[in-house]
Amino acid sequence: MSEKQERVGREALTTGQLLFRVCSLARERMRVHLDRLGIHRGQGFVLWRLGEQDGLAQGELARGLNVTPATVSGTLRRMEEAGWVVRRADPLDQRISRVYLTSRGRQLRRQLVEAFRAMEKELVAGFCPGEEAELKTALEKLRANLRSGDSREDS
């Protein structure tokens, strides 16, 4: 395919179509990085979140990851079996289960951080600092638009 044909093909895509394609490619590349570590995407999010704030209640973790408590419970069970996390009852309220990274979990999180850094390098390869800043600004605007819901459809 010639450069001109490729350019015309890109121009034919809507912003949404291009965004979906980029997101799909990024998700697949991140899966490759996570596979190298032997973890699944959901487990990566748990490791990341607990690295930011260890000892979260299981319910807080589910809300923060925007998943159901049942989903996070299954993920945590597998992570516990792998020796990455441990769940302990809250000392003040035994009904609450708090989640902590183990030393193996902290080590794996450090590897996860490196995987995210590698992914970031892939994402912005060939960008000058100004282009990267413009992209971040545009993505923040897209996120704000999507968060506002369908309030503009009536306009």
Concise account of the structure shown:
The protein has 155 residues and is mainly alpha-helical. It is built from 7 helices and 3 strands.
Description:
The protein has 155 residues and is mainly alpha-helical. Helices cover 69% and strands 8% of the residues. It contains 7 helices and 3 strands, in the order H-H-H-E-H-H-E-E-H-H. A 3-stranded antiparallel sheet has the order 1-3-2. A hairpin with a 7-residue loop joins strand 2 (85-89) and strand 3. Helix 2 (15-37) runs antiparallel to helix 6, helix 3 packs across helix 6 (103-124) and helix 4 packs across helix 5. It is globular, with a radius of gyration of 20 Å. 13% of the residues are buried.
Topology:
Blueprint: H1 3-12, H2 15-37, H3 41-52, E1 56-57, H4 58-65, H5 69-81, E2 85-89, E3 97-101, H6 103-124, H7 129-147
Antiparallel strand pairs: 1-3, 2-3
N- to C-terminal distance: 41 Å
Number of strands: 3
- State the shape: globular
> What is the strand content?
5-15%
Q: Output the radius of gyration.
A: 20 Å
The spatial strand order of the largest sheet comes to: 1-3-2
Determine the structural class based on helices, strands and strand pairing.
mainly alpha
When the domains are counted, the total is: 1
Q: What is the CATH level 1 assignment?
A: Mainly Alpha
Low-confidence parts: none
Notable traits:
155 residues, mainly alpha, Arc Repressor Mutant, subunit A, three-stranded antiparallel sheet, 7 helices
